[in-house]
Amino acid sequence: MEAASLQLPAELTHAQARACAQALSAQIAAATQTRVDVDASALVIFDSSALAVLLDCRRAALAAGKSLAVAGLPAGLQAMARLYGVQALLAPESAAPPS
Question: 4-95 is classed in which CATH architecture?
Fold first, then answer.
């Protein structure tokens, strides 16, 4: 199955979060594939806003009937997701489109 591929920027903090979330949501809505892959490996500078953007991507994918897979989360962002209890929401199998 082919997937739409999206890339997070190198810096994703509160200052960039709104614009990034809007751009990614638009790309998710426009994607013709049923799966969306988000590559977070470029992230170097981030705060909890990066998690908010990824959760917004998940909501956008589910609303569009698509699944979402996040890859390349930096260790610090993975730890933050565990701390906030949202790591399962970013797992590919939890973001399957509704039946």
Answer: 2-Layer Sandwich (3.30)
